[in-house]
Amino acid sequence: MAMMFWLSVLLIAYSYVFYPLLLIVIAKFFALSPVSRCHRSQPDVAVVIAAFNEEQSIQARVENLLNLDYPSHKLHIYIGSDGSTDKTNAILNSFEQENVTVRCFDVNRGKASTLNDLMQEITQPIVVFSDANTEFKSDAVTILVEHFDDKNVGLVSGELHLFEASEHAHKGDNKDGVYWKFEQMLKRLESQVDAMVGANGAIYALRRELYIPLASNTIVDDFMIAMQVARSGKRLVYAEEACAYEEIAPNLKAEQQRRVRIGMGNYQAFLRSAWALSPTAKWRSVAYIGHKVLRWFTPHFMVIALVSSLILAAEPFFATMLFIQLLGYAIAIWGTQQSYKRKRVPSFAAFISFFVSMNWSLLLGFIRFCSKDIQGTWQRTAR
Known about the structure:
Blueprint: H1 2-30, E1 45-51, H2 58-66, E2 75-82, H3 88-93, E3 100-105, H4 111-121, E4 126-130, E5 134-136, H5 140-146, E6 153-163, H6 177-192, E7 203-207, H7 221-231, E8 235-247, H8 252-272, H9 283-296, H10 298-311, H11 316-340, H12 347-371
Parallel strand pairs: 1-2, 1-4, 2-3, 6-8
Antiparallel strand pairs: 4-7, 5-8, 6-7
């Protein structure tokens, strides 16, 4: 039982501490040459968005795309409304620009099905994917496209900045930004050794011919698309200069539904991306295990650590470990309750609450993944 405790703790530590340190070393000694960028390359580009009940944000989203600094005659916008029941369809149909194509589907089938249908209409060589509640910086598409001058590049992911509504005017990072910046650092390092696993769903681009239709019940479409491109042998690049902005959910409660569903999608993706576990995937295998797989199973390790320390609590050391864990969970519960009440909590408590809440959502996602038939249909969340 002591071995189970230590194995669980070490696997969590490896994912969050030792893997990042290992990645720094790998990037230092095995970094590839930077991708060449052609600042004059401006091919036709398609921007694709699947939307469901986005009446509050869809007009601003389309206007944002229409005002990008990319040549308007080369920028084509495709938006699919997936069985929306609010005013989304009416708002979309009010746009009469020639470069805006709107498809309003009667039935809510899911994002993957909507993307598959839209992709059948696209002829542009470069496709940019985004969300209905995202805002691009004016030069975002230009920067993404510049990287495709290198024929080895198959996908380019931009950088998503999260902000709170009260900080919108300044586009400031959210208060949980430490974790998000940590993730951005890992993506940058993984990009240097062509080991990226996934893309920022709010802003990424790929060569059209590399798109493989998704299974209709796919949940984490951005991850699966990126992994398909990686499996083709093309390079995945992280372009931090290509910026997008998105408002975070107002509190942990509003965010949990989204995290649970993504948790379901993670375990679905795990079964569909077994090829990336093989050493033949090279550095991507190291990144996939350290950055993704061990993260997805961290809640399981946390449960094992708690149960094993409880069983071994007669020993002083494990009694202390049990106390530390219970104290951490108590702080997380308190911090979460304060968040529900929109009250501020100390930074350390906010981080513990965020970490525990994230893994609790993952665990719920795993339970739902194992206990129900996953459907592609979606429900709108606060983010």
